[in-house]
Amino acid sequence: MQTGLIAFLILICLCEQTRAQVRVACIGNSITEGYGLPAGALSYPARLQQLLGSGYSVQNDGASGRTMRKNDTKNSYWKFGKLGQAMAFKPNIVTIKLGTNDANNFAGQWNSISAEFKRDYLAMVDTLGTLATKPRVFVVLPVPIRGNNDSILVKAIALIREVATERHLAIIDAYAPLKGKTELYADNLHPNAAGADTLAHVFYRAITVPVSLPPVAYGAMPGAEASAASTDITGRVSVPIGIWRARFRLLPRR
Where in the sequence is the domain holding 161, given as residue range(s)? Predict the structure, then answer.
């Protein structure tokens, strides 16, 4: 009888621990998925799980080759990615790291597809906003492309910043920490194990920093007052339009 009671109490404690976990969905492409990493190396979502600890549950929703645009008939994340999986996870936090393949694969068409890219990015944010969990959404500035198409990626990043401003979202800057750091790349697109570890720390600081943002304005009307926060490699978070600024030391690598 006593043994059964103890087992029951342990089960309750385990259920409570699981329920209390903060669920983090990492939406992205092959960089998120962990493409090109050697055996035994961790993708940045897997490393992020280690850094955040047992109070969080991090799900890797990366899908190789995927783009943001709905009209990409071969690689749209909407059609061929893991958006359904990410939403079924009922996340409390979502990070969106898409745009690399839009810029790299459609560099010559960028001027004609850029409006579509932004429109579909906003639509993804709004779609995530329909979840009952009302997740906090972070937009991620993609890592640099080592090559001529990086100039197109910079234009995509400008649009991602606009999305953040219009929807009151925090920005995770994955671009600046890897800019010019060839030692953190396995090829022209994909970070190596050290690069993935760097990204995990950047994401960790962004997720755990005590910054207060106004409610996410899903489907906000154009012209509405908005503000966005960004976290850079120095660990500084800034909220530009009159909310507040928070600064903190770099956390030691674990």
Answer: 24-246
d(CA 74, CA 5): 55
* pLDDT tens-digit map of 196-208: 999 999 999 999 9
| 174 contacts 132 by C-beta, under 8 angstroms | no
Q: Is residue 88 assigned to a domain?
A: yes
Mean of pLDDT values over 179-184: 97
Of how many residues is the chain composed? 254
Residue tagged 């234009």 (tokens): 155
Going along the chain, which residue ranges are E strands?
22-28, 56-62, 93-97, 136-141, 170-173, 229-231, 237-238, 245-246
Distance from C-alpha of 141 to C-alpha of 8, rounded to nearest angstrom: 46
CATH at 99: 3.40.50.1110
Tens digits of residue pLDDT in 39-58: 889 999 999 999 999 999 99
Establish if 253 belongs to a structural domain: no
Q: Is residue 75 part of a domain?
A: yes
Taking Cα atoms as reference points, which of 100, 118, 134 lies closest to residue 27? 100
- How many folded domains does the chain comprise? 1
Which residue's structure tokens are 């936090």?
A: 93
Residue range 208-235, pLDDT digits in tens: 986 554 444 445 433 333 344 544 433 3
Q: How much is the pLDDT for 209?
A: 85
